[in-house]
Amino acid sequence: MQTDIAIIGAGPAGLGAAAELGRIGAGHVTVIEREQVPGGVPRHCGHSPFGMREFHRIMGGKTYAARLTAAAEAGGATIMCNTTVTALADGPELQLTGPEGTFTLSARAVLIATGTREASRVQRMIGGQKPGGVIPTGALQGLVHLNKQVPFRRPVILGTELVSFSALLTCRQAGIKPVAMIEQGPHVIARSPAALLPRVLGVPIHLNTNIAAIHGRERVTGVTLTGAQGGRELECDGVLLTGAFRSEAALLAASGGVIDTASTGPVVDSFGRISMPGYFAAGNLLRPVETAGASWAEGKRAAHAIHAFLRDELPDRSLNQTLTIASDTIRYALPQHIAPSGPGRHQQILLRVTRPVKGELRLSQNGQIISRRRVNAMPERRITLDLPEQPGTGAFVLSLEEAA
Ligand SMILES: Cc1cc2nc3c(=O)[nH]c(=O)nc-3n(C[C@H](O)[C@H](O)[C@H](O)COP(=O)(O)OP(=O)(O)OC[C@H]3O[C@@H](n4cnc5c(N)ncnc54)[C@H](O)[C@@H]3O)c2cc1C
After folding, report:
1. How far is CA 387 from its chain centroid?
2. 113: Cβ below 6 Å to ligand 1?
3. For ligand 1, is residue 257 a contact (CB within 6 Å)?
4. What are the tens digits of pLDDT across the range 39-73?
5. Is the pLDDT higher at 377 or at 31?
């Protein structure tokens, strides 16, 4: 099979790109989605608000996903559901598995928009037995909103990111009463007023605490807490693993794409070009994690970069300059390679910090500061810094000078 532009993943980023590629007449677009229905994560978010940036109105996740799908189809995109991309090859050429079996799809350009997922129990190194009832938020939302099932009644929630509070809302809708929220750090990670919700719902938050072990043979019967709640046993019938996002980059890594261990996503330049020629990346695959609106905007921007690429109008990669991080307080920053101005360029550096920090963020080149801004930052909160239109020559160095 053949198409002009293949998009892997029908979430906000992939569908946003498909709609925009259709609008600007870039060529025929085929979107490949492993789920039965397009829409990505918002499809199983039973709550609002979605859609302000995209459709100028507030809507629930399911409606939003349907609107994104309709916009992509109106642009002429073909959406292939129940189909998984299993390998990426030069060409570009994709290996696919669907209801008809295994086949290949050749394209002139490919956008990878496979999103993000929450870290598993193994990645969080939680010991103990292996009973049922240990799931991430995405699975809970899918079970409750798509399958109308209730996986547990009194779980413990690990994490206090925004999605942890979204999990709390899902629990409430399903009549589930969590016994506690557990946060490893000294603060709740999500911004207020989300942090007020557990108080309203009567769910205690344990800070500076972690889950050391999960107990139960068939089903979870309890957990062992460490830290401030040291050595304490807590009875519960499930464990909800929330947040601690990682890019869904396994396909890329297995196909030889270069991954940034800090961001957990692909190494990209300002146009979203990855290490494999003809391949681009957008959305939450780039890093964990941004909102649906931000991912959609990145997909839309990638459409313009891909359109320019197909017309041979993107600046040559040899003009890219590397971005180096010179601070332990900066967890990741991207794009990792800064390109000169052109259609669909990322105009800012996007970064996250490792701990709460106040100070000045500085971007330097050849010892000269070329962009700076004051920050009062918390982990998991979005931070941006403007980029110069033309990168000049020499590596960019990103540093964070803490206030005395
Ligand atoms: C549990 C959870 C809850 C969230 N809640 C919110 C929220 O309330 N509000 C908000 O703004 N953001 C939320 N987010 C962040 C969310 O990821 C973004 O809002 C948005 O969905 C990102 O869009 P995306 O297109 O980058 O990725 P996704 O929406 O994740 O879409 C990626 C798509 O790629 C598909 N895919 C992956 N690999 C393959 C493959 N190999 N072959 C074919 N298809 C593939 C997936 O099935 C998926 O449909 C949440 C994230 C999670 C994990």
Report:
1. 22
2. yes
3. no
4. 999 998 877 789 899 999 999 999 999 999 999 99
5. 31
282 in Cβ contact with 17 (< 8 Å): yes
8 A C-beta contact, residue 288 and residue 162: no
H helix or E strand, kind and range, residue 62 = helix 61-74
CB 117 within 8 A of CB 242: no
Q: What does the alpha-carbon distance between residue 288 and residue 267 come to, in Å, rounded to a whole number?
A: 14
Mean pLDDT in the chain? Answer: 93
Structure tokens at 347: 């105009």
Q: How far is the C-alpha of 272 from the C-alpha of 268, rounded, in Å?
A: 5
SS3 326: coil
Q: Quick one: CA dihedral 185, 188, 191, 194, positive or negative? A: positive
Taking the alpha carbons of 226, 231, 234, 237 in that order, is the dihedral positive or negative?
positive
CA 145, 150, 156, 160: dihedral to nearest 10 degrees?
0
- Whose CA is closest to 153, among 164, 165, 140, 166? 140
Please identify, by atom number, the ligand 1 atom nearest to the C-alpha of residue 289: 15
pLDDT, tens digit (0-9, with 9 covering 90-100), for 212-256? 999 999 999 999 999 876 788 999 999 999 988 999 999 999 999
Which residue has 């992509």 as its token pair? 72
For a ligand 1 pocket test, name from 114, 120, 264, 289 the mutation site with the most ligand atoms within 8 angstroms of its C-beta. 114
Report which of 382, 308, 370, 367 is spatially closest to residue 338, judged by C-alpha positions: 370
